[in-house]
Amino acid sequence: MLFLVVLFGGSGALAYAAFGSKIETVVLKNLPQASKPVQTVQFLYSLAILLSTPLQLFPALRILETALFVKSGKTSLRVKWTKNAFRLLVVLGCVAVSIFGAKDLDKFVSFVGSCACVPLCFVYPAMLHYKAVAKTRFQKGSDIALMVFGMLAAVYTSYQTIKLMAAPSGPAQPVGHCMPPEPGAGNGPDSPFWPGGRFF
After folding, report:
1. What average pLDDT does range 98-103 have in this prediction?
2. How remote is the C-alpha of 166 from its chain's centroid?
């Protein structure tokens, strides 16, 4: 856990140290777009998302299909193709959300995090512990307090995110890039991070 905190916290801190207030939601957009290594990383990142989409959709589709379809597609060709059409609609819905939400990706991610991830972090573990493990009054009280805190946090953060989403957004800001090397500015050959400097 400590390793993950250091890894993600360090990555975020380095990104903010490099780009400051001009940092993008996806930090890859801050890198020079004409650079071949950057294009390779972006391609591999896109490929990873593309290949992991079925894995991410599988649990949600299973839950929805169990609730919507009584029969199995193994015995009925009609049910099988209805399920396939339903899966296609879910994927197209995700594509539509990604297209229309691309401009405000950070707000959309915040909304998903508020509605789904806050309960996943605070409410569900405490609920499971309360049902399966908690025996003493202190344990049960702690679980209930954590569940209440999680629900209040989810409602508050969701409200704040919806308010932020409803506020009019200005014109799209141009994508920031790394500054070209300038002598004496600390980002050129005189920088310790320049290839051949003391850190390389």
Report:
1. 78
2. 20
